[in-house]
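Hi support team,

I'm opening this ticket because the web form for multi-chain structure prediction keeps timing out on my end. I have pasted the exact lines I submitted so you can reproduce it. The total is 633 residues across two entries, so I didn't expect it to be a heavy job. Is there a limit I'm missing, or should I split the entries? Thanks in advance, R.K.
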Amino acid sequence: MPSTPAKPSRLTGQALRAGYDSRRVLDGVDLTVTEGQLTVLLGPNGSGKSTLLKTLARTLTPSAGRVFLDGQDIHRRNTREVAQRLGILPQGPSAPEGLTVRQLVGMGRFPHQRLWRQDADQDARAIREAMAYADVTDFAERSVDALSGGQRQRCWIAMVLAQETDLILLDEPTTFLDLKVQVDLLELLVRLAHDKGRTLLVVLHDLNLAAAYADILVMMRQGRIEHSGPPDTVFTSIHLKQVFDLDAHVIRDPHTQRLLCVPSLTGTTPVSQIAPGVAHG
Amino acid sequence: MTHSPSLNHRLNSASAATADVGRARYASQLGLLGLVLLASMGLSLGLGSFHTSFREILHALAAPQDSDIAFIVWELRLPRLLLAVLVGAALAVAGAILQGMVRNPLASPDVIGITSGAALAAVTFLALAGTTLSIHWLPAAALIGALIAALLVFLVAWKGSVSPSRLVLVGIGLSAAMGALTTLLIVISDDAAAMTAYVWLTGSLYATQWQDVLGMLPWLLVALPLCLAHARHMDAMALGDAVAQGLGVNLLRSRLVLMACSVALAGAAVAFAGGLSFVGLVAPHIASRLVGRGFARLVPAAALVGALIVLYADLLGRVAFLPKDLPAGIFVSGVGAPFFVYLLHRTRDRRY
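Hello R.K., no limit was hit. The queue was backed up. Here is the completed structure from your submission:
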């Protein structure tokens, strides 16, 4: 991938501390979200990935530190103006019964609509393009709750796309989906970043998919960012051990040159030392 | 993901067409409901203990000064049926707001303490001041009771923000307590006050006067436009708090505005007509079956359905058991209770 001159980042978090009630989940996090790239937040359960995403999206107020969107404190800005620049899809959203795909996608226009100023043509165009991009046009008039998990998730992404924001934050958009559906979704997200110049920050659970599709990997553990950078430098067996307590080899897929991790089973002999035939026993 | 221009054009016009069909269908449904309501009002105006012909009614409406039945039409029937329409519409919209906000189809103005607060205030008024103050002050007392109860529920449920489910739990708890106090007051007050209180609690439009209609109207004129202005906020909140916040909804402010609308509408309706709040449960459901999703569509339809329900409940109360004039609340509950059971039956397999 040819490296383009880096644009100044529009979304940054500085010395963020945040939590729920008395439990602190973020413990002094600095993050600069790179423009036009797909950044993936990785980390074990409870490491603070979702909390960081919500804090950056201003849906959670930090107890200390600040989030800047275009140089201004995001938590002090008008929430609707923020929504015109930054879209967020929370984890596991659920649509009310009977809501059609078109209606759901149309809700993405909310921050652009005012009682006294509605551009119906622009709204219709944005909805149409978002549905086409997420490939949900074919079932536009069907109820969201009647669709499969993968189709439903594409509808939600179409809603965020209809919001027409340069910054898109997604919290575990691929969880509970089939592998093929996960791959399709991630390719959609990569296209958004690389073809459309959108900036994406995504929480993922699957290490190999993260390594395969991320431009930048951010590894979190216990409320702190431990490592951050391109997968080539961040996705190493030492880091996996340190962050996830996972014993794994990192190898390169000979066809795509992408990095993969293969967990090694502790306490067992390496496969190469097992005599042929024993494994079948 | 590129379509050929002609395909793109076809898709555009197809989607535009479905949207137009939806809009035209909605307009015709709303128009039909409006016509049914007007016709029903005409019917209600013509029926009563004193027989009146259609021509006499028209004559009394057009030229009250030389009609024998001008008093019956203008002072007895018209204010009463107009109040029925206003009260029904207000309760239905109040219920639609609450059901949307709590995301539970079984919510009604009862659940946040409005009805029981108004009832307690009304019964207290009858027990303590019934002999010294004019009965015309009863709606004011009931309205104050409803607003105080709603405020109390809000304050107890407040925990840095308002969670709708907490609001409902607190509301049900406080309603029960206020219900107990109401019963206690009825038991210890004298028979006449107890009888008046009982009729009021059932919900009645008996002896409605123009000043009641004029007292009810402003609440609707303020709350309905405010509610419609926040319809998109409600639709966004139906997607969940996190999604709504992401779309730029100020959750706290939108909730407060919509709740205030609901409290004002239900409080005023209960104050003028007593315990008819079952309308607030039933009407939004019937309306949403008719017009489907979208709060901006639901509100006018629910208002019309609610108006029809109370209008017919009151008409039945007036003419079905002549010469007795029964409280409309009996018939509202008579329709509402079976519907409530049907709703529970229908939704028991769902996630609610």
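A quick check on our side: The interface with chain A takes residues 1, 3, 11-12, 15-16, 18, 103, 229, 232, 235-236, 238-240, 242-243, 245-250, 292-294, 350 of chain B (CB under 8 Å). Let us know if the file doesn't open in your viewer.
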